Amino acid sequence: MNYRSDIRNIAIIAHVDHGKTTLVDAMLKQSKVFRNNQIVGELIMDQNALEREKGITIMAKNTAVVYRAVKINIIDTPGHADFSGEVERVLSMADGCLLLVDSIEGPMPQTKFVLRLAMKMGLKPIVVINKMDRRNSRMAE
């Protein structure tokens, strides 16, 4: 297989409501994917009506940002146990992963399962801790 040094595929591993879609939204806005005068809502990646209604990602989706001439394909994966087959499929295509952990709830069992799977596949996670500004954050733990 040919390996391209100018493309990276990154999966985001996190439990439902731990902020995957919000993180991707912020990455897209920060990387100036949108024009300054363009009005962009929240949950950019969740276009499916059921996903918007439930506030969860059901089907994996991808988008991309460019950083220092490297195209980074970001894969927003489902965070619910019912969609583990979809998560495994995504991980098999990834070069690396972001492990997104909610500082209030901590790592959940499904997240730990997906992390073990990712590490077994040779992925090296970058840990991102979300919701640290919340009053009931458990950062000391």
Strand content: 15-25%
State the end-to-end CA separation. 43 Å
Helix content: 25-40%
How many distinct folded domains? Answer: 1
Q: Tell me the number of strands.
A: 5
The structure class reads: alpha/beta
CATH architecture: 3-Layer(aba) Sandwich
Number of helices: 4
CATH topology: Rossmann fold
Q: Report the sheet with the most strands, covering strand number, pairing sense and barrel closure.
A: 5 strands, mixed
Protein name: Tr-type G domain-containing protein
Organism: marine sediment metagenome
Pfam families: GTP_EFTU (PF00009)
InterPro entries: G_TR_CS, P-loop_NTPase, Small_GTP-bd, T_Tr_GTP-bd_dom
Describe this structure in words.
Helix content is 26%, strand content 24%. With 141 residues, the chain is of the alpha/beta class. A 5-stranded mixed beta sheet has the order 2-3-1-4-5, with helices on both faces. The protein is globular, with a radius of gyration of 15 Å. 24% of the residues are buried. GO terms for molecular function: GTP binding; GTPase activity.
